[in-house]
Every structure is written in C-alpha cells, then in structure tokens.
C-alpha cells in the first residue's frame, strides 16, 4: 500500500525523528486509521535500520585513540603559546626593527609624492600657456630658418648679378 499524499512530508519527518509535538498527535491519530501510512512507515523504519546495521563505523583501537588525543592536545597547547598571528610572523624580527621598517616605508612614500609634485612630467598635449610641442625635425628647421632665409637672399642676389652681367656683355643696339 502507499502512503497518503498529504501526509508524505509528515511521514518523512516522523521517520527521521524531526516531527514536532503538535503534529505528532495528529499523525498518530491518522496512523491508527490509515493502513497505507502505517505500512509505509514500518517499511521505511526497517530500511533505515538495515542501512545503519550495514554501514561500517570506523572504530579506533585504544592506542590510536590515545595518539589522536595526544596530537590534538599538543596542537592546541602549541597554539595557545603563540596564538596571535603577528607573534608567529614577528619571531625573526624584534619590535625595534618593525618601527624602522615602518619609518622607511613612510620616507619612500613621502619622497615619491614630493617627486610627483615637484617635477613635471612631459605632457602629450599643449601646455596651459599655449605652447606647442614640436618634433626634433621641426626644431632643427626652426633653428636653421635664418640660414635658409640668407641662402634665399643670396640666390636672388646671384640671379640679379648674373642678369646684370649678361646685360652688360650683350651688345647694345
């Protein structure tokens, strides 16, 4: 027979021993009247008892139990001696060294901050004053601009002189 569908959850709670006091009275009254629920409960209890019988529980020999107990006690007593994590870290360093390390870190951070503040890094865009950044080739052309202007003036002068010489050599009619 099969258990009533509305009592399936109650059946599971009863079999596992989790059924509350209030619900237990209603459940026991239902079990007296319903053969299907009674039979299902009996089968589940028998099934669970077989599982418990066949499951192997590891048993410790007295020697193993004593050794495990001693290991746990040693571990606990070792933690109590240096229970703080920083005590385990600070074993190789005395307290004065920690202060010196902290001061050195502060100096490094402060000097980095001041370096960023005092020294300007080259910017990629135009500066606030409206200056334009030029490439190396552009700077070279600007430096030699006067020389280029002088060369252009000389070319014109040579052209005029050559023209005048050519006119003076030619026969006048």
- What percent of residues are in strands? under 5%
In DSSP terms, counting alpha (H) and pi (I) runs of 4 or more, how many helices? 8
> pLDDT below 50 for ≥5 consecutive residues: which ranges?
none
Largest sheet: none
How would you spell out the order of helices and strands?
HHHHHHHH
Q: How much helicity do the residues have?
A: over 70%
**DSSP, total strands:** 0
Class from secondary-structure proportions? mainly alpha
Question: What's a quick, concise take on this entry?
Answer:
71% of the residues lie in helices and 0% in strands.
What does this molecule look like?
The protein is mainly α and 173 residues long. Among the domains are: 5-54, no CATH class; 70-103, no CATH class; 136-169. The chain contains 8 helices and no strands.
Summary tags:
173 residues; single chain; mainly alpha; 8 helices
Please specify the SSE layout and strand pairing.
Blueprint: H1 8-15, H2 21-33, H3 35-54, H4 62-81, H5 85-89, H6 95-118, H7 136-143, H8 145-169
Helix pairs in contact: 1-3
């Amino acid at each position: 027979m099969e258990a009533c569908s509305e009592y399936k959850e109650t059946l599971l709670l009863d079999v596992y021993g989790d059924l509350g006091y209030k619900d237990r009275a209603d459940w026991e009254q239902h079990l007296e009247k319903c053969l299907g629920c009674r039979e299902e409960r009996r089968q589940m209890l028998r099934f669970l008892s077989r599982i418990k019988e066949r499951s192997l529980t590891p048993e410790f020999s007295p020697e193993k139990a004593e050794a495990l107990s001693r290991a746990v006690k040693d571990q606990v007593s070792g933690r109590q001696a240096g229970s703080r994590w920083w005590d385990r870290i600070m074993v190789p360093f005395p307290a004065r060294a920690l202060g010196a390390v902290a001061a050195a870190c502060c100096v490094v951070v402060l000097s980095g901050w001041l370096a960023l503040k005092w020294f300007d890094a080259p910017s990629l865009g135009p500066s606030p004053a409206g200056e334009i950044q030029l490439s190396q080739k552009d700077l070279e052309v600007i430096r030699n601009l006067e020389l280029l202007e002088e060369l252009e003036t000389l070319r014109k002068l040579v052209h005029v002189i050559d023209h005048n010489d050519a006119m003076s050599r030619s026969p006048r009619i």
